[in-house]
């Protein structure tokens, strides 16, 4: 075969993949592997923007062999449903918060221990280091493959409708929604609040109908999910640092040829690192945007919260539940806790 003819054929064979760049058209052939990824966040959140980039990159680098379809915003059900789907293989990928995946793998909630992390240096040192590896190993035991780079949710802040939170005593009796998460319930009970677990898909409506008076989430989520429409006050409490693990059904993921697994892993991990940067940038302006949207901010001192958690035995209880090995990994990154 002449070189020219071979080049021409090669050029033809990459055409379908080229058509995928930028998502302008469908590949001429159906992808060999059509994978589904579901999450609980609006399309405008950096998690979805970077996930779409990763999907585009995977399509391109695999020459159209792998297609990842994204189902944002709880389209496939709430967190509990998606967690079940990724376990039974109906869903290939899901990004549960550490709090949520802990309903299945309890150790995964350890990063959410109240006031553990002082800043992002500590966060990524722990989650990219020994603590993150320990958690991913536990997820593997229940059939979940976890990509190495955790995605950022952020430091969680408390919003309320009826009155502002100025110190821990304003938490007394507060009807607050927390994610479906034993640690969240335990922590807000320790603060004398009255917490209720609800999936994120139910948060906006339960605030609107006043089933609950308050909720807690990082500022970027409060902004993109428009929670300012149904909440008046926001306390910068930084009480929990939370991230999203990018997980896959391990059986389905390991059934991909090795070269495709590498392409998918690199695309997802790289996108995760960029998403962390997006949240950092977002954090620089989001409070001002929320203020323009009518939210009133308070900055309660963390001391009264920490003291209440300590005195109620919260830290002792969770050290026992997570175990000495994991607790030592956490304290290795953040220093001695209570
Ligand atoms: O449900 C929430 O609050 C959210 C979006 O932060 C999580 O996924 C835990």
Automatic annotation (TrEMBL):
- Per the UniProt entry, the signal peptide is 1-30
Q: Which UniProt keywords apply?
A: Membrane, Signal, Transmembrane, Transmembrane helix, Transport
Q: Where in the cell is it found?
A: Cell envelope
| CDD domains documented for this protein | PBP2_TRAP_Siap_TeaA_like (cd13603)
Task: Tell me its family.
Answer: Belongs to the bacterial solute-binding protein 7 family.
InterPro entries in alphabetical order: DctP_fam, TAT_signal, TRAP_DctP, TRAP_DctP_sf
Q: Specify the species.
A: Bradyrhizobium barranii
What's the protein called, per UniProt? TRAP transporter substrate-binding protein
Looking at the UniProt entry, the stretches that span the membrane are: 98-118
Gene3D superfamilies linked to this entry: Bacterial extracellular solute-binding protein, family 7
Q: Please verify whether the record's keywords include Transmembrane.
A: yes
Asked if the keyword Ligase belongs to this entry, the reply reads no
